[in-house]
Amino acid sequence: MTKYKLTYFNFVALGEPIRFLLSYGGVDFEDNRIEWKDWPEIKPTTPLHQVPILQIDNEVLYQTIPICRYLGAKFNLTGADDFENYKLDNCVQTITDLRMKIEMVAWDKSSPQNFIDEKRAELLNKTIPFYLENLEKIAVKSGSGYLASSKFSWADLYFVPMIEYMNFMMKTNLLEEYENLKKVYENVMKIESIKNYVAKRPTQGN
Amino acid sequence: MTKYKLTYFNFVALGEPIRFLLSYGGVDFEDNRIEWKDWPEIKPTTPLHQVPILQIDNEVLYQTIPICRYLGAKFNLTGADDFENYKLDNCVQTITDLRMKIEMVAWDKSSPQNFIDEKRAELLNKTIPFYLENLEKIAVKSGSGYLASSKFSWADLYFVPMIEYMNFMMKTNLLEEYENLKKVYENVMKIESIKNYVAKRPTQGN
Ligand SMILES: N[C@@H](CCC(=O)N[C@@H](CS)C(=O)NCC(=O)O)C(=O)O
Ligand SMILES: N[C@@H](CCC(=O)N[C@@H](CS)C(=O)NCC(=O)O)C(=O)O
């Protein structure tokens, strides 16, 4: 039997879409959640000195989106054709762009507080609505209850934990006003395997 | 006949892998190179207020990597199987991570000069060799004269212009010491369609 071992910190962020995908795929994976204090020792053993890494038997996979796309292909969660696959990739990249914009403010420990407050306000009033409206329009167009394709896809399993992570960073529910994105979120959270994983995970959306 | 129109600034950066791919695919594309002075007018007409965008008939595609992967699929430049596709995606992401690290320093207009100099030195002595060694090892392993797969792929057409762009930002030839990456670069530049495009392009590696 193929052995899966995911190594990441004990929080959502980049590890969680992989955990969602592995849970959905029904594979029994080792969820290796490392502590900050152990990181200096583990860091140099990883290919880019970063996590997540996913070991599949003797292969070490890294880079979150490539891992997610690979698992998506494995578990039949790709689009119906090349153009639908493009649309999934496009959404995943747009979510990632937004996530990085939020991280730059949320994890900024060196700028003065008034600068950070200003940046936070800009995120809440401008950047986040702009990106989420883009995604909402795509979800409206798909009309499937899923993000960008005619059926459930790996992009949906990427989207939901990233929303959780961004909610955590922004301390608010970002989807409040986006009916179609909310629907995608709910549809994913309704999936039996995801529900089971979420019920027993050690971190709740952070 | 399908109409392709690429809109980007008149430089290499994110536009160039798309230009390489379209040139390789042998499609006649409109290479719409916009001037900075016209950007404020064009910006709000694009989906994320950014370029590149690629119009294919009536569809507007955006997000560089998703566009490149889509064109790669169209022009039969994908990997031999899902795992090879993962390896291509992985390299493309790693190149992108490095590119963004370099951009943060190269386009930093607000930090004091000594801070920028320090960051530049760190890039040259630490970050860039670390990332390029990672990619070099992958190229050694592939053994094909191409980046990560047993045959030529879209990741090679992504890699070469990104190296050009990073060379431009760092004002040096980053591949000097990486025999296998240099080989990939040369192999791509030898392709007839790429050679023809490069010979006539208005910008030379910047
Ligand atoms: N491009 C990588 C980024 C990975 C990354 O940023 N990992 C962070 C945690 S989210 C990390 O390992 N930080 C610890 C460190 O760099 O020492 C991916 O998409 O997987
Ligand atoms: N995630 C996007 C990023 C695109 C991007 O950063 N575009 C820059 C040029 S390289 C841009 O449009 N800058 C002008 C602006 O934002 O006003 C992609 O990969 O295509």
TrEMBL record, chains A, B:
Heme keyword on record: no
SUPFAM superfamilies given in the database record: GST C-terminal domain-like (SSF47616), Thioredoxin-like (SSF52833)
Family to which this protein belongs: Belongs to the GST superfamily. Sigma family.
Alphabetized UniProt keyword annotations: Transferase
Protein name from the UniProt record: glutathione transferase
Organism lineage: Eukaryota, Metazoa, Ecdysozoa, Arthropoda, Hexapoda
Domain GST N-terminal: 2-79
Source organism of this protein record: Polypedilum vanderplanki (Sleeping chironomid midge)
InterPro entries: Glutathione-S-Trfase_C-like, Glutathione-S-Trfase_C_sf, Glutathione_S-Trfase, Glutathione_S-Trfase_N, GST_C, GST_superfamily, Thioredoxin-like_sf
EC id: 2.5.1.18
Catalytic activity of the protein: RX + glutathione = an S-substituted glutathione + a halide anion + H(+)
Domain of life (superkingdom): Eukaryota
Assembly description: Homodimer.
Gene Ontology biological process terms in this record: glutathione metabolic process
Every GST C-terminal domain range: 81-206
Molecular-function annotations in GO: glutathione peroxidase activity; glutathione transferase activity
UniProt-listed CDD domains: GST_C_Sigma_like, GST_N_Sigma_like
